[in-house]
Amino acid sequence: MAAQEASGHGRASGSGPRKVIRVAVVDENDIFRRGLVACLETDETFLVAYDARAGPVPEPVDVVLASALAAAGLTGPGPPTLICGEPGRADGRPSQGPADTVLSRTGLTEEQVLAAVRAAACGLFVGPLPPPVRAGDGGQGGVLPERMRDVLRLLADGYGTREIAERIGFSERTVKSVVHQTQLRLGARSRAQAVAEGIRRGLI
Predict the structure, then answer these.
(1) Domain boundaries defined on the chain
(2) DSSP 66-98
(3) Which of the listed CATH numbers 3.50.50.60, 3.40.50.1970, 3.40.50.2300, 1.10.760.10 matches domain 21-121?
(4) Is the separation of the CB atoms in 175 and 183 below 8 Å?
(5) Which residues of 17-50 are buried (b: 16+ CB within 10 A; e: fewer)?
(6) How do beta strands 63-67 and 46-52 pair?
(7) How far from chain centre, in Å, is Cα 12?
(8) 126 neighbors 116 (Cβ within 8 angstroms)
(9) 142: left (phi over 0), alpha (psi -120 to 50) or beta
(10) What's the pLDDT tens digit per position in 60-82?
């Protein structure tokens, strides 16, 4: 139940200071919970502030990552909750906020965990996440070209047009074009909706 420091290894940080996202991981399955913590610790953006089998969460956090059973015991208003269960809410727990999302425990990837936590911290609701769409699969919406996926990942990380252009070596005009084409490909009306769709379809 002690707070844990994010390891800071793995992905490179951005060009400037970035807000650390404090996460509580609450799951009665020790192996699954440790796997979630390990995913979060690959990215220095996240700090696992609480790691336990059950709540309540004793300190302020930005996002709660919990099993359906553990989430059912978290009452009252609080931060966005990502429920690691199966869509349909067998526990009967009503949605607690705009980013209250169900992550399937089956086929969940590290990329989906990180992207979903980022989205929740920004207040985005992405809906139940299906198993990820893998390269070569038709899937709902198909597979985005790698350039579009790179831009979508950076959008999910909170970067703007100029920052994205600097990081991937494109002009701002090209980045805007890629974003526009990505929105069209995903049927999204905004950048936030494109990120949400990308997460929902397992594309980022």
Answers:
(1) 21-121, 146-200
(2) EEHHHHHT--SS-S-EEEEE-TT-TT-PPP-ST
(3) 3.40.50.2300
(4) no
(5) eeeebbbbbbbeeeeebebbbebbbbbbbbbbbb
(6) unpaired
(7) 17
(8) yes
(9) left
(10) 999 999 988 888 777 767 788 88
Residue 181 has pLDDT above 50, yes or no: yes
Q: Which residue has the higher pLDDT, 27 or 111?
A: 27
148/130: higher pLDDT: 148
Structure-block tokens of residue 29: 């399955």
- Report how far residue 179's alpha carbon sits from residue 185's, in angstroms, rounded to the nearest whole number: 10
Task: Quote the tokens at residue 86.
Answer: 């199966």
Tell me what the mean pLDDT of segment 173-189 comes to. Answer: 87
Tokens encoding 122: 């920004």
Distance CA 36, CA 28 (A): 12
Where is average pLDDT lowest: 6-10, 19-23, 72-76? 6-10
Q: May I ask the CATH architecture of the domain 146-200? A: Orthogonal Bundle (1.10)
For residues 204 and 46, the model is more confident at: 46
* Cβ proximity of 22 and 58 under 8 Å: no
Distance CA 4, CA 49 (A): 6
Single out the residue of 158, 71, 75 nearest to residue 114, CA to CA: 158
Q: Looking at the whole model, is its pTM more than 0.70? A: no
Cα–Cα distance measured from residue 137 to residue 24, given in angstroms and rounded to the nearest whole number: 34
Reduced to 3 states (helix: H, G, I; strand: E, B; else coil), residue 47 is: strand
